[in-house]
Design a protein that fits this description.
Bound molecules: iron/sulfur cluster, magnesium ion
CATH architecture: 3-Layer(aba) Sandwich
CATH superfamily: P-loop containing nucleotide triphosphate hydrolases
Strand order of the largest sheet: 6-7-8-3-9-10-11
Organism: Streptomyces stramineus
CATH topology: Rossmann fold
Protein name: ABC transporter ATP-binding protein
CATH class: Alpha Beta
GO molecular function: ATP binding
Distance between the termini: 49 Å
Number of domains: 1
Low-confidence stretches: 259-269
Membrane topology: Peripheral membrane protein
Shape: globular
InterPro entries: AAA+_ATPase (IPR003593), ABC_Ni/Peptide_Import (IPR050388), ABC_transporter-like_ATP-bd (IPR003439), ABC_transporter-like_CS (IPR017871), Oligopep_ABC_C (IPR013563), P-loop_NTPase (IPR027417)
């Protein structure tokens, strides 16, 4: 049987003034009910584009999507806009990085939470208002009945993020996509928001995709992890597997820029030197080869010419052998 969300061989291309961008290039992943998948990568790795495609929020005139996105058995890639609109906010919802763009400055917070509830459930104004207050209370806004009448600018950044979560969850979505939900917040508030998401997930049994460039954010929040680079998944596994014994050189670099996890290591790894490739003309072979220090270990021209495949289940898209993947990281962090 299929997972709750199943993405198969997804390609997303769009036109820009400079040419066609291959933003997502053959992506596969699955998400079960009640589980959290972290998608990690630098900006431009395709993680946000993937999720806009799932939600049907891409610009349809400029974007070409191929592949399969099945949500609870329903195919989304070819679904007409009215179908997607019905699903959005109801069965699937999104939390954005910036609550100021997601919340309108012109309406009270309570009204903005009540509206989608009215739209999707046909509840009365009074019922919807009641529901909005309940949701604000649930996400930890004190004096929710009073604060519901405030405008977004009267809320702090952390409270706006909570309000946005309340808005996203008001119709009990089964899939929640959170794109860098805590990036704009300070570390303490970040941790509170992530805890809140976990708590709410435990109450509702929803599935979550958490998109981030920060491996520190995923460590305590997600079950499975997908590492993306240049529009492809380069490594996948449980969060424990990937953080404890990462197998892709790019993941090694990401981990190196996260000192918290390397605390049992004498010297922190250096972050990946270089910049992500242009998706207007992605490098042939392994897209990571221009930045990779291990092409010689693979030998010959292989990294530059042959595209490595990501195996199903635990693994990395890299020509290094499983043994090399396992041992090289351990050697790298061995104190000298
Ligand atoms: Fe590096 Fe080659 Fe592995 Fe790509 S396939 S990550 S270039 S070793
Ligand atoms: Mg993004």
């Amino acid at each position: 049987t299929r997972a709750f969300l199943s993405v198969r061989d997804l390609y997303v291309r769009f036109d820009t003034e400079d040419g066609v961008v291959q933003a997502v290039d053959g992506l596969d992943f699955e998400l079960e009910r009640g589980r959290t998948l972290g998608i990690v990568g630098e900006s431009g790795s395709g993680k946000s584009v993937t999720n806009l495609a799932v939600l049907g929020l891409h610009d349809r005139r400029r974007t070409e999507i191929r592949g399969e996105i099945l949500l609870d058995g329903q195919e989304l890639t070819g679904a007409p806009e009215p179908t997607l609109e019905k699903l959005r906010g109801n069965k699937m919802a999104m939390i954005f990085q910036d609550s100021l763009t997601a919340l309108s400055p012109y309406y009270t917070v309570g009204r903005q939470i009540a509206e989608p509830f009215r739209k999707h459930t046909g509840a009365s104004r009074r019922e919807a208002r009641q529901r909005a207050v309940e949701m604000l209370d649930k996400v930890g806004i004190p004096h929710a009945a009073l604060r519901a009448d405030d405008y977004p600018h009267q809320f702090s950044g952390g409270m706006r993020q909570r309000a946005m979560i309340a808005m996203a969850l008001v119709c009990d979505p089964e899939l929640l996509i959170a794109d860098e939900p805590t990036t704009a917040l300070d570390v303490t508030v970040q941790a509170q928001i992530l805890d809140l998401l976990k708590d709410l997930q435990q109450q509702t049994g929803s599935s979550i995709i958490l998109i981030t460039h920060d491996l520190g954010v995923v460590a305590h929040t997600v079950d499975e992890l997908l590492v993306m680079y240049a529009g492809r998944a380069v490594e996948r596994g449980t969060v424990r597997e990937v953080l404890r014994s990462p197998r892709h050189p790019y993941t090694w670099g990401l981990l190196g820029s996260m000192p918290r996890l390397a605390s049992d290591v004498e010297e922190p790894l250096t972050p990946v030197p270089g910049t992500p490739p242009s998706l207007l003309a992605p490098p042939p072979g392994c897209p990571f080869h221009p930045r990779c220090a291990f092409t010689a270990a693979v030998g010959g021209d292989r990294c530059r010419t042959e595209r490595p495949r990501l195996p199903a289940g635990r693994g990395a898209a890299c020509h290094l052998t499983d043994d090399q993947q396992r041992t090289t990281f351990a050697e790298q962090i061995k104190p000298r």
